[in-house]
Amino acid sequence: MRKRIVAGNWKMNLNLLQAKQLLEEIEKGNWGSEVEVFLFPSLFQLGHLQGTNQKITLGAQNFYPAEKGAFTGEVALDQLAVEGIQWVLIGHSERRQYFNETNAVLKTKLDYAIHQGSKVIFCCGEPLEIRENGSHFKFVKNQLEESLFHLNAAEMKQVVIAYEPIWAIGTGKTASTEQAEEMHAEIRSWLTEKYGHDTAESISILYGGSCNDQNAQELFACPNIDGGLIGGASLKADSFLTIINA
Ligand code: PEP
Known about the structure:
Radius of gyration: 17 Å
Strand content: 15-25%
Distance between the termini: 18 Å
Strand order of the largest sheet: 1-2-3-4-5-6-7-8
Number of helices: 12
CATH superfamily: Aldolase class I
Helix content: 40-55%
Number of domains: 1
Order of helices and strands: EHEHEHEHHEHHHEHHEHEH
Shape: globular
Bound molecules: phosphoenolpyruvate
Number of strands: 8
């Protein structure tokens, strides 16, 4: 059985007080063990939020792939581990776009995280012009081949994949369930080709891109969609809890 996951990416939003309040409100929700809930707050808040919460797994939006040293402004996996943080996001389109994280950079980060024993949500997804010219499968496959598919099957089990079409992120324009399921099914078929049926069936693939309390149920009902990576709608307890329950 694949893990069902709902992960909230708070990006660079919320001050510490707001983050603590929102986490407390979300924790009041009643969800069963069939879903795992993750939150990715601002890096500096992780230590403050970690102590108070039991039901939610906190992860880091970013890290630098080196043990320590002169990397001003960056955070090391060991520093996160001391706070009990095991999960990291890699490959988010905003990191690719604003911080020049190419497929090669992401491969380096991924390898570093995997070898340190971290667990990873690895994001992929195409921009609008690629969707419009019809080469979205090729584009996403290339992202995965250049950054992810060199892992062996045991290493892949440390990874959750998030498909996030860039044209749907923060735009209010969700991929249709057909578009999302079609890409998820393709990703699963590439996993099957590379790693075999059992491994492919064990890897959760999340959808992200304007997923909200109105559309989550329909998206999550698709056979290859194992949950969501949620931006805007994770900033309100009501909507995030509705998505978790979906
Ligand atoms: C995201 O940034 O990962 C995301 C999916 O954002 P939103 O839900 O706001 O589109």
